[in-house]
Amino acid sequence: MTKKNDWKNREGVVYSTKSDYEFTYDTGEEANTLPPQQQNLKVQLDTSGRAGKQVTLVSGFVGQTADLEQLTKLVKSKCGVGGSAKEGIILIQGDMRVKIVDLLVKEGYKVKKVG
């Protein structure tokens, strides 16, 4: 049960003139994870905002955070580098585009190399 005056969690509402207005909170449900054959992943190289360091980005993953973390762990271990997963994007240190595309295709994912 939420407090009636829990204003910190209200996003996008400034004021309402309706006396019976009830704010609905976003539940933030995660989407079910699609099977690898239905995933459309994009692999690209990025250096912006990283002090000139190169990172390989894998975006387009649709699914739960636990499955994204599991895929991130697989990619990191097979490439032998560090990385992380944030907001549906896998960040891998260095230029590993070719290796990641080969790995994901072998795992059954639809992958497109961008850039």
What does this protein look like?
By secondary structure, this protein is of the alpha+beta class. Helix content is 22%, strand content 22%. The chain contains two helices and five strands. It has a five-stranded mixed β-sheet with strand order 3-4-2-1-5, covered by helices on one side. β1 and β2 form a beta hairpin. The longest helix is centred in the middle third of the chain and has 15 residues, at 65-79. The termini are far apart.
Summarize this, please?
Helix content is 22%, strand content 22%. With 115 residues, the protein is of the alpha+beta class. A hairpin with an 8-residue loop joins β1 (40-46) and β2.
- Please mark out the parts with pLDDT under 50 across 5 or more consecutive residues, or reply none: none
- Please state the average pLDDT score: 85
Number of strands: 5
Strand order of the largest sheet: 3-4-2-1-5
- How much β-strand is present in the residues? 15-25%
Shape: elongated
The amount of helix comes to 10-25%
Given helix and strand content, the structural type is alpha+beta
Helical stretch tally: 2
Radius of gyration: 19 Å
Question: Alpha-carbon distance between the termini?
Answer: 48 Å
What composes the largest sheet? 5 strands, mixed
The SSE string, one letter per element, is: EEHEEHE
